[in-house]
UniProtKB/TrEMBL annotation:
Signal peptide: none annotated. It holds the Pfam family GerE. GO terms for molecular function: DNA binding. InterPro entries: P-loop_NTPase, Sig_transdc_resp-reg_C-effctor, TPR-like_helical_dom_sf, Tscrpt_reg_LuxR_C, WH-like_DNA-bd_sf. One of its GO terms (biological process) is regulation of DNA-templated transcription. This is HTH luxR-type domain-containing protein. The keyword Transcription applies.
Amino acid sequence: MRRLTDALEEAADSETHGHPHSQHQITLRKELSSVLADAVRGTPLLLTVDDVHHADSASLGVLQEVVESWNGGGLILLLSQSLHGAPADPLFHVETLRSRIYSRFRLHPLSQEGIRRLLSTHLCESATEQLAAEYTYATGGNPLLLRSLIEDARNTEPAPAALAAGREYQQSVLACLRRCSPPVVEGAQAAAVLATSRRLRAATPLLLGYVFEDGPRTAEHPLNVLQEIGILDPEGRFRLNAARTAILSDLPPERYRELRVRALHAMHLRVGQNRRGEDLPNILGTGTSGTWTAALLLDAAETDLAQDEMSSALAHLQLAMDSCPDEASRCKTVAGIARTKWRIDPLTAAQHFDFLLEAAGKDALAVRETVTLMHQLAWHGQTAKIAELIEHFSTDGTPSQPPELHSACQLLLNTLPTLKPFLDRVAPALGEQQPGTTFISVRARAGGSLAQLLEGGPRDEAVTTAQQILRTSPLTDFTLEALECALLILISCGRFEAARSACDTLLDEATRREVPTWRALLAAYRAEIALREGDLAAAAQLARDALAVLPPTSWGAAIGAPLGVLVHSTTLLGDLDEAAAHLQYEVPEAMYRSRYCLGYLMARGQHHLATGDARLARADFEFCGALMKEWQLERPGFVAWRSAAAESLIRMGEPQQARDLLDEQLSLTEEDDQRVRGITLQLLARTRPASRPALLEEAVDLLRASGDTFSLSLAMQDLSDALRSLGDTRRARLLADRAHALGVQARDAGTPGTSSAEEVPAADDEDCPAGASPLTKSERRVAELAAQGLTNREISNRCFITISTVEQHLTNVYRKLNVKTRLALPDGLADQADTS
């Protein structure tokens, strides 16, 4: 062995060892062969050479001499070679294969059963199949990685029940990579950098090809090697995060920065193909800039917004600010930041208004971004700045402005009616409206329908448009205003059930998607619907919810919406102290330039009326009316200020003036506007004593059909008083009881439950006029409940039939009994209902 060692050292030290055909090398090979022959005479010899694919030509020449010249026994030469590394001398590989004494074996990964046995021997006596499966996945059957994981587990106190990758494992990963070719190492490094994105955990040849300069073909081989040695799984993911951590920690800073930029470029190409945003902040740092960098980040932010991930969108946009190559890119980025912040809290978006206004003045904002800015300015009631923007467009010499601008102006009119004179003046300069995209068309139709309705236009057409918009339009930043208009149309037309259903759907979606501004705004609309349905407790709670999601300072001019409902509902609930406390909030002056002030003025007037100050109440109601006349909002269903002002006049002892206002309101109210007509007739009855019972009977029927529980309870109580003064004490008592029950229902939180159906024996037909058909059992049951004072909906719930069926039964009952209203139903029917 000493002769063999000396011969090997001499070969290694020889200055000419790199020339396999030199005389010196030939002599050395013969000497080694002689030494090996002598060594095996006394005992068998195993000679091993690892990583032969890394051997130099001279060393391979020695090994080849041994293979070719050896004819005796006693010597085993064991060579190990990587399947993935290119041999240094292909001729050696071929000649060895041709030798008659050469055998080739391929070592396969350890099986799961083999791993289980090793775990039982070295880690725990009875390793389970589950534990073996975990180690099999973690290592891919690589013995080196398996031994390192076992060592990490044994070094952990107490020993973990599952595998724990530590320092030994990470060192083994790096050791495996150092034995691989440079392209494989580069592939591992690229995969580690890409995997810092939560959506790019799986490396693919295409994705790695973006990082490799020579494309996907170059990346395919390294990816296969990394999968075979157990670092990546078949899907291209790191089997253990510790492997990725080890590779990243071993990267020099310069190399890491280089790969990070390449990875960013790869993701830019990927986003450009798939339109999918990625989790970029983890792979980005300083030193990345360029047009494609900013474009990638803006695309990622847009994707985040579509998925309602506002925090991630802001992170991407802030990074884009550091990467903007020009002013246009910077303006687009700031507009994106403002839009994202507006979703979270409109107050924080306001800090970007000055920059965006300046950019718009330089035509550096896209039209949609300018329209979005107008909407944000309208929220805060900044009419002067909106006028500046529109003035800029109207004087730029363009013969016809984009359709987005026309639809925006229409929507602005509905929010800020004070802009109407200005918009009328600049309208010719804006040109004719051109056809737009679907979303622009929806905005234009919604805004136009609401404007025409509030100016006294046809109701049915507006309702149809609103229902279609609510049914077909998704909830987005760009459709929100259109959806608001549609809800306002249904509310103003008294279609409370349809408005409630649509608003509940939108509010549920906004809550699920966790967009605070949408949620608060829709809660305010839902509170308005509840107020008009007479559900006072629900209205108050929904308004509180809206103000809890967004604090008052964040509402801008829109504060009038939730605050008005809260003051109004708490006043009607009798909680005057809470209402007074809310009135202490100093609303912004800009609110009085927006439609949001109308509901607030009505609520404040109601509070003055409830506290006994009819004069202040009248002032608020008439101020509200003056604004509506100035803004040409003639629809009483939008805000019925005349009936409120009339009530204050009645309290002040001015019945004639009150009657004039009420007659005017009736003339402006369409026949099917049941709520407004019912409220108007109830108050008109106070000014016309001779017609009081008849007017109140009609008011009760209208309010019952309208669904306004609270107003119905007031009208029923007034009718009860009128009937009692005429000596009809039985019906007066029934109405008073029913009015009290409805008042309690309006003031109680929650939705009243339905009662169980009751089987009532069919009564005789003594109430039917001679010659009339007798009432059926179902008709009599409906008539009994109607005579008791139940609404059609309550009868429907009690009897488990549709409202349409209730109406059909009542029509038959009225015809058979020859009466026109339920108040004229025979006494016996109500008495039977009481005893049933």
